[in-house]
Specification:
alpha+beta, globular, 34% helix, 413 residues, 5-stranded antiparallel β-sheet, 14 helices
Length: 413
């Protein structure tokens, strides 16, 4: 493993890189354990709202609550890995004798550098990452991830850091390039290659069974059937599991990028202490996109999550995309699977109900969002029809008999 070269950072230059022509955004500075931000005058003139609710365009220096998001504005906190990605960086630093508990949020942004999700990039950049392009074995990556979770395999940490691409979530992930017929998989942290697309693949964590990927794949198929907007998905074969779930990255279009911002970062709503209601998410969607069709898209996702028993739908699991023209839209849905939220309740409540939301709560939600009653009926009906596919699809894709039965009982009683 190469020596980590992470010098403490006191200033970060933020740029916005849609098409490999970075636009200076502003500067973050660390002074006496507090973080400050100021937009560049040239960026203010462009009129592009990166985070209209909590970091709106205006001149002057601002600082933020040090108790939330490590003192960062939510739009930059969105760029930091959590869970698996943070574990990798912390383990790499510790293996080189660096006390990761003392590094700042600006140090962590330097670790993200140019390789993060979305279109924001940060300088200076930690130069300890590996970016060689080459063919990959998903089974080998899975084995390495298992070893890291077990506290072993320090020699592969930097490779896994580069492959993580600052993606969020607790489960191990890798950003990869995949060819059209899904037969060649390559390292996804280099330059875009013709004939390959940006994808993200997940591996099991210590709480997952060997069929976790297959369950998420079946959920994605049911969601698409229900009309939920999803990116392309694939279940790659695995030696010791039912398969590796993978999805095409929606923040990349060829070599170009889209700005990505979660509801967590937009609202400064900490995903670790869920307080959101779907009514707020629908209102946010309408306010940001100015498009009733996008509100209906969020409503369809809410209905699916409730009826499909996806209860870990916290504020980081809803995101928005902005293109170079400044136009916002809801991102495709992601992290859809059978799950239990805090205390068995939904992380995002439905008209105040988290434990046992019903179709009636969903109808009231639709009414509050001014969605036509016939549309509400159609969405609920389409979702129930899609979920009826569970047992057949689950068996076909190798979900264990116990989980087929468990989830079937949860969905249909």
């Amino acid at each position: 493993m190469a020596q980590v070269s992470l010098e403490p950072v006191t200033e970060i230059k933020v740029t916005l890189n849609f098409d490999n022509d970075p636009i200076p955004v502003g500067r973050l500075a660390l002074r006496e354990n507090e973080i400050y931000f100021e937009y560049e005058a040239s960026f203010l003139e462009k009129g592009i709202e990166l985070s209209p609710l909590r970091l709106s365009l205006r001149p002057g220096v601002r600082k933020f609550d040090p108790r939330l998001f490590d003192g960062l504005p939510g739009v930059f906190y969105d760029c930091l890995p959590d869970g698996w990605g943070r574990l990798l960086v912390d383990r790499a630093l510790a293996s080189q004798g660096v006390n990761y508990r003392t590094i700042s949020a600006l140090d962590r942004l330097a670790c993200v550098g140019q390789s993060g999700m979305g279109a924001l990039t940060f300088l200076p950049e930690w130069d300890g990452q590996t970016t060689e392009v080459g063919d990959l074995s998903l089974d080998q990556l899975s084995t390495q991830a298992e070893a890291v979770l077990a506290g072993e395999a320090n020699d592969v940490l930097q490779d896994l850091i580069a492959l993580n691409g600052s993606s969020a979530g607790a489960r191990p992930k890798a950003v990869i390039f995949v060819n059209d017929d899904k037969t060649i998989i390559r390292h996804g942290s280099g330059e875009h290659e013709d004939g390959f697309e940006h994808w993200l693949v997940k591996f099991a964590n210590t709480q997952d069974g060997p069929d976790a990927g297959a369950i998420e794949y079946v959920y994605a198929e049911m969601a698409k059937t229900a009309g939920v907007e999803m990116s392309d998905v694939h279940l790659f074969p695995a030696e010791n599991a039912a398969g590796y779930f993978a999805t095409k990255r929606f923040d990349r279009i060829g070599s170009n990028r889209l700005h990505l911002h979660s509801a967590c970062g937009l609202l400064h709503s900490d995903f670790r202490t869920p307080t959101l209601d779907y009514e707020e998410l629908l209102a946010l969607t309408g306010s940001l996109t100015k498009d009733a069709r996008e509100v209906e898209t969020m409503y369809r996702l809410a209905v699916f999550n409730v009826l499909a028993h996806n209860r870990d739908e916290h504020s980081k699991n809803f995101s928005f995309l902005m293109d170079a023209s400044g136009e916002w839209k809801l991102s495709p849905a992601y992290d859809l699977t059978f799950s239990s939220g805090p205390g068995g309740e939904h992380s995002s409540t439905v008209m105040g109900e988290g434990k046992s939301p019903t179709e009636e709560h969903l109808r009231r939600l639709g009414d509050a969002a001014k969605i036509d009653e016939a549309k509400v009926d159609a969405v609920i009906g389409a979702t129930k029809d899609a979920l009826s596919m569970w047992k057949e699809l689950a068996v076909n894709y190798g979900v264990s008999a116990d989980n087929v039965s468990l989830i079937d009982k949860s969905l249909f009683g």
